[in-house]
Amino acid sequence: MSRRLSIVCAMYICAFGLETSGCSNLANSTIVPRVDTNAIRGKPQSAGTWTTKAPMPTAHAFPGAAVANGVLYVAGGSNGAKLNELDAYDPATNVWTTKAPMPTARDFLAAGVVNGTLFAIGGDSGVTSNKVEAYNPSTNTWTAKAHMPTARYGLGVGVVNGILYAVGGSNGSSNFAMLEAYNPTTNSWSTKAPMPTRRYGLAVSVVNGILYAIAGQDSFVLNTVEAYDPTTNTWTTKASLPTARLYLTAGVIKGKIYAIGGSDITGNSGEVDAYNPATNSWSTKASMPTPRDGLGNGVIAKKLYAVGGESIASGYLNTAEAFSTH
């Protein structure tokens, strides 16, 4: 059983009081039951549209995903076994190709791109990982980079001004609020101000040089949103996500953050909520066709591509769906 499936099972056991002890730190949670906000608010199905795209060659749940030069790369993850496969999607042709495998098979990792190079960071390779491996699309090769100071999985990564910021995560016994920054030019790490709220399974996005940490889980599933300004090395609390969830994903279209999917006590979510930093407010958009958590995403030409993931009903997924705001 995958780590994610173990967590889901434990969440259900703990939440309903069927077991009073033996739940790990990742699951001994006071889960806040999900309110069906879609029904309450009358989800406006016209608020964006979804289309189905070519499926991935391999199902990837809990991968690292990022866009380089108009191509979406999906690295690692799990399909029952930990993967080192790297699949690349070209939206211009709606075709996937398989690239050179990542040196270290792992899931629950994060990824970011600086100057066209993909960086795969942390995760779980059988042990909690601090590995950083960089992929060069022009040569189809990987190189090992300086290890992240703190080994962790379920972290988020955002890029601001050529620096990768690795935030949150867990090592299986402790959840983290830490923020560590990687400079590819010097191949070195530095420690920054920690998040106010420790968590793993969060989503991270960047708008106008500000990094946003969205939802996740600590002792319970969160809807907390906190923003980091690298110029002042400070965090501020923002308007909460409408629905608490973990292992969601998020991407930016036209200066707004779209928080997509994830999971909570009721199961997998297809919910899509858009955050406007200018007004510090959320609005609800058209639901993703395939509810899931542990998915990856990338934004290309103002479309968000939601790929892979896991669902309690269908298991590991190779699904690819694209969201457009118009």
Question: What can you tell me about this protein's structure?
Answer:
- With 326 residues, the chain is mainly β.
- It has two helices and 28 strands.
- The model is unreliable at 1-46 (pLDDT under 50).
- The protein has helices at 3-15, 37-41, and strands spanning 49-52, 64-68, 71-75, 86-90, 95-99, 110-114, 117-121, 132-136, 141-145, 156-160, 163-167, 179-183, 188-192, 203-207, 210-217, 221-229, 234-238, 249-253, 256-260, 263-264, 267-268, 272-276, 281-285, 296-300, 303-307, 310-311, 315-316, 320-324.
- Strands 1-28-25-24 form a four-stranded antiparallel sheet, with no helix packed on it. Strands 2-3-4-5 form a four-stranded antiparallel sheet, with no helix packed on it. The protein has a four-stranded antiparallel sheet with strand order 6-7-8-9, with no helix packed on it.
- It starts with a helix and ends with a strand.
